[in-house]
Amino acid sequence: MTLTARAIRFCLALVLAAMLPNAYAQVLRIGLAEDPDVLDPTLARTFVGRVVFAGLCDKLVDIDEHLKIVPQLATSWQWSADNKTLTMKIRPGVTFHDGEKLDAEAVKYNIERHKTMAGSNRKGELALVTSVDVVDPLTVRLNLSKPFAPLLAQLADRAGMMVSPKAAKAEGDKFGAHPVCSGPFKFVERVAQDRIVLERFANYWDKGAIHFDKVIYLPIVDSTVRLANLKSGQLDLIERVAPSDMAQVKSDSKLKSAAIVELGYQGLTINVGKSGEAQKNPLGKDPRVREALELALDRDAIVQVAMDGEAVPGNQWVSPDNTWYVKSHPIPKRNVARAKQLLAQAGVPNPSFTLMTPTTSDAQRVAQVVQAMAKDAGFDVKIQSTEFSTSLNMADKGDFEAYVLAWSGRADPDGNVFSHLACKQPINYAGYCNADFDKDLADSRTTSDAAQREKFFTDAVDHEAKDRPIIYLYHRKWLWAFTNKITGFRVVPDGMIRLQGLKG
Amino acid sequence: MSRFLVRRLAAIVPTLFFVSILIFGLQQLLPGDPAIAMAGEERDPSVIAYLRGKFHLDEPLPVRYGYWLKGVLHGDLGDSVRIQRPVTELIVEKLPVTIELALLAMAIALTIGITAGIVSAVFKNSPLDYAANVFALWGLSTPNFWLGILLILLFAVKLGWLPASGYVSPFEDLKQNLASMIMPAFVLGNAFAAVLMRHTRSAMLQVLSSDYVRTARAKGLDERVVVLRHALRNALTPVITLGALGLGELLSGAVLTEQVFSIPGFGKLIVDAVFNRDYSVVQGVVLFTATVYLSLNLLADIAYFLVNPRMRT
Amino acid sequence: MATAAATVIGTVPAAPPEASPARRALRRLVRRRGAMVGLALVVFFVLMAILAPWISPHDPLATSWSMVRKAPSAGYWFGTDEIGRDVLSRVIWGARASLLAGVVSVCISLLVGVPVGLVAGYLGRWPDMIISRIADAMLACPFLILAIALAAFLGPSLTNAMIAIGIAATPVFIRLTRAQVLAVKVEDYVEAARAVGNSHLRIALRHILPNVVAPLIVQATLAIAAAIIAEASLSFLGLGQQPPAPSWGSMLNTAKNYVENAPWMAVWPGVSIFLLVLSFNLLGDGLRDALDPRHG
Hints:
B: about 325 residues, C: mainly alpha, 12 helices, about 0% strand
């Protein structure tokens, strides 16, 4: 055959091959704001790790846009009358990436792993689960020592993620290097600080909802560079767009964006009892000074200036559009005159305090705005920029007066307040200890009835609003940007990138 | 010669020892408890206790140093607390990336620096000299992260010629690899170009005013021949050896360049490790870098020694 | 060279007074245009820093919620930053931080490095070995890493950044001083001084130190340039001058998030750093040429 004929035949073959469906793998490239830590749901501790888990590991239940608990690996559940037992039915026919069956035994293994593995970060979340019973191959029963309403919300996160018992037993604590779960995509490879590659799991139980063959997560820390990558076409989707960049994303015809208010908050944590420092400073000692500080702040302006409007002002541990927000405590308006009055009453017309501020750009901006606003009421705020790791240490020791601290947020309101403000909890940096307040929170955990819980939370907010151990400032918006080829993006307040239904 | 070699080799060991103590000591002084930093948002006390035990954080300083040193002598540089993988593995993974970046940057630096140096020396005190000076100097005068961001905006976003960041292995896709490395290599090489320019210029000036060049000129040889054949060869010797040492300088610059361009190399690894209090990574990588740097130093000395046997110290 | 004079008939012109080496160096320096430009720029920035309170149009810390990220205009020549402060005023005041960062760091390096280098070079043997090994160890670590680790240890602030950079840059001066001392130590006049019975200290101060000064000045000038960039780098990582106080490096750190929306926030501090560092580099190069006759 002549060379030309051969060449033509070759080209024809190529063209035909290209026309075949799935000739090219559909790859989704996602830009993350940080490099995730270890990919083991039991040991994991970062927000960004959860973003990767959304594609890798399914959980017992999930939450939807309205924070309702919906089925995922579990199809239905039932609390016992005394609220101390949760019975869950497992979805039939589900397998792990290595082919192992996902049944009640596997669930039992996982819960126990979360509770007992050395270094597990899930122990606190599952502390009240005393034992797990296998009722039948598809039914599992969790026994609690005390009623704990937030449990389902915990199971919608890492505590509810299921890994293959066979792989977990084989790899031990090295499991995170090659995780085997049951999510829509399975693990292929990970190059630290460069990429995490997942490929489609052919036997996923909801495979109809998955429209990509491969997902690659690329951590790019600098938000400007992350956006530049999206614009130049190297990424399809990015998370945590900088608020100041949203305007240009919206005006770019090749890009689309999505936003939703987060579950967490940004606030000023005040040392009211964590250490001796608390009693030395008028801010920590006198609630009137704290009230004056709150009245000196204009939350709308803070949101506008520090976050370019991409946040929602707030004064409680849940945002105003959350169903658990206590409407009887609306956001106070700025009132400098009243603030000065209070300070005069307290006998400290010009109080001075140090504001410990992590070196992240958000925190820095907030601190500067707070400093300028508080000055109008007579406050002398000294900004102490501290590297994040160091700031955690100092907060732990109570070595601060006020601290700009954000919380990533949990689906159940209990997750946003208990560990922070209940007596002696590990991240109660404020050192707040109020017996009535603790009782309200404890009571709110005992029932799943929303109306009843609402009552307890209202009482709790009453206390918090009076004592102000934390002055909540605002709730950020999760901001995503993606190319206009992407459709079906679901905006859920937990900030996760859910791949089911996503097309591109 | 062999005595010289042995003496130099022997000097490396105590230096490395000091390096390890220096970095180890410095890190332990860093405020911030790595166990707390590692323990996650919830700061579960049991996790903190577990981490403290696993990484011997409660033991006295010399004991911890001892554990680490013992590991090093067995080829084990410890595990990264954050990613939970052996440091040696991370080094092997990231080394080729930074090496490629450094070599490309070096190539760019040599080209710009030596050319500018020659031009500057030959046309001394003329506008060309001045221009070459400023051109090479601007690299040393501009913060490389700023230059990097500007270049990304121009070439990646506005023009779309090059990828904004990231890294593709040359074995996977050579063209894409070079496309993603050219901007960071340029940014990184700029600063060193200035250093090379200075040295080339002074070496050339020295040589150009030397006897044998004057002789060559007196003989009536064409100026170009004088410069290229006689002067250059002699001037370049110290410059080339400097080039070998420059890799150490480049690593310093790579820290920020890798950060801006998201290149998964050493620099990025170290910066993240310092901020996350990932002690093992910092110690392991610095020790490795120091070893390489000192070895290159030694090689440069040997090369210089071979070229110029009159050198005795 | 002297032969020509002998054949002149008539009055032999009196020989000009012998200019001191310093004077000759100065003359060579003045002749080099690059160095003069550098010097002029340095003086400009120093004056800018000193006269900041009088020449800056606005208070560099004054925020204005309505003027957030506004482009350059009549009232704000360089535009405003992310919380409404005047960029021009911050650039003017920022000169203080950058100049301080450069000069103080190098002073620290000199104050520590030169005496240590003198000791090492002059005493030799064990002190020299230990000091050289330590200096080598410090040089073997990437400079920026050392500075980052030190700054992280001390805490983010301009002062700590200066200390960190100063310490990280010390080994260069130790090495330089030591090398000069070793070269000069064997000169005849030093031997003569010893023979006459001068104390070590006197010899070090009167005979050795003056010979070290020239390369030290050159190196110091160039080190200032590098220190200013190092401060900007540390600020980029969040470890240098902290807001709200202005410094060009920290202004760049904040501006990097707004390069497309508000490029003026990044341009002016970047240009200023570039000019200041360039001027020190030019000056340093000129000094090197002037002080080393082989390059004149």
